[in-house]
């Protein structure tokens, strides 16, 4: 944190005037109220652009949370003392214009006059008097002098400059200590950093530069990919509009044949088609908006990460830089959705106009293909499943019980790989991935859940004091952590896991809990009595429960369109029936029931899992078998 003001050069002797994000002198130094760390206001605004869905800001240095008002960064107070020190610095250096014009001060004498030349041999900026000594004293006879005008105009390069060690005045700080994250001279290495990992400062800077250049290239590639995807969405929109227009043409042709008294029927059909068009447009706009938001976040993040002052990264500034790089790296790893727009187009083209027969006094109706559900892949697991979650639009993450450990990622083609970003020697009970790639896992036979960053570092630990061990975890659309443990309550934590926001009391023991975009909580008691599915709001108000018949267990999943799937497992006949429900306030209204399919269940096994991967893909697991299910509506 920049707290004090020095009297020497801000780039070296006064690091407290340097913003940890942009690595430049503070401009409108602004304080994060929770921890007191200070940054440029413009840097905080850039950083906030990638977190607009949150009502708070996580400090890039210490991860403390600062609540934001409606005006967000603009309402944070300025650091008056730091801004005063910055003003003093600019006055001593000849004002802001002197800094911008690169007017260096002489580092060869104590007068600190304006530098007119640079000595490559001394590695010092020199004033008129020092230049005179270099020209006429024999001791400086072989020194190589270059003009500052030539340096500023780019005609000559003065190469890499090292700062002088504050302890060993004559030594250059040309080493970097990885353990302490500071620049040191070779004497400091021998005195205070013997057992530490030491790197050459030039090599360290080059390594940082390579990482940033790689991130910048990946940002450019990701931006190009997303822009192409947006173009494809617009192409798909045109095809959707063409298909919808075909429907309208067919309806109008039938209308010309029918009598004029069918005008009301025509109007109803047109309204249905326009509703279809708006629905498809809305779905495509959601896809387009997501891609544009990712582009905006990537562009904002790389401006914070990629700058010309990487050579001065140490302590706080390096910590901030590393955290920003981790967040950007996770953002770039997130898969681009190339399929949803095509799926919407296919759905639009599947709509058909069915003319009425000659005995009916109407035009006909709009219909699509009959709703159906098909198991497209059956995968044998390496042990009994304990927990499952969505990993991507066609893959799941799975944790196992009994003797198996670790996490597997399995896709709809049956491919398996082990998730290796977190320790695999632990036994986990349940898991859920957050939007930024972070992973929340609960530990087997404990009341704890851990949140890991996409790169595998542990960010937070959640302790649930009440109830039995073995926590079930899920997340809301806004990345809140949802936890239940077979008691009559559901715990809702903020995305960082640091704050318990709500405790929702339920009427029955809850084994599974999912949330809708509006914050409703859909719960299932699974195999506990009574076996029910119930919808609650955040105040604990409940709708009418779905009750399972004897010998049937119910497992629930909510898709991204707030449609509710319920899998009813008949243990006696080893059959599964999946039904789709729409939300009607706090009640569930059945929309369609799909044909039953047989499952190969371990005798007496009670625990199953149902997860929505995309609007047209479900994953269902029971015992040691995983099913990928294609849904057509």
Note down, in words, how this protein is organized.
With 633 residues, the protein is an alpha+beta fold. The chain has three domains: 101 residues, Zinc/RING finger domain, C3HC4 (zinc finger) (Herpes Virus-1); 157 residues; 261 residues, TolB, C-terminal domain (Neuraminidase, 6 Propeller). The protein has ten helices and 37 strands. The strands form eleven sheets. Strands 30, 31, 32, 33 and 34 form a five-stranded antiparallel beta sheet that branches. Strands 13-37-36-35 form a four-stranded antiparallel beta sheet, with no helix packed on it. Helix 7 runs antiparallel to helix 8. The two termini are 56 Å apart. The N terminus is likely disordered.
Short description:
With 633 residues, the protein is of the alpha+beta class.
Largest sheet: 5 strands, antiparallel
The termini sit apart by 56 Å
Query: What shape does the CA trace take?
Result: elongated
Strand content: 25-35%
What CATH architecture of the largest domain do you see?
6 Propeller
CATH superfamily of the largest domain: TolB, C-terminal domain
Helix content: 25-40%
* Helical segment count: 10
Mean pLDDT reading: 83
Spatial extent as radius of gyration: 32 Å
Q: What name does the CATH topology of the largest domain carry?
A: Neuraminidase
* Uncertain spans: 1-15, 94-102
Instruction: Report the top-level CATH class of the largest domain.
Output: Mainly Beta
The total beta strand count reads: 37
* Class inferred from helices and paired strands: alpha+beta
Count of the domains? 3
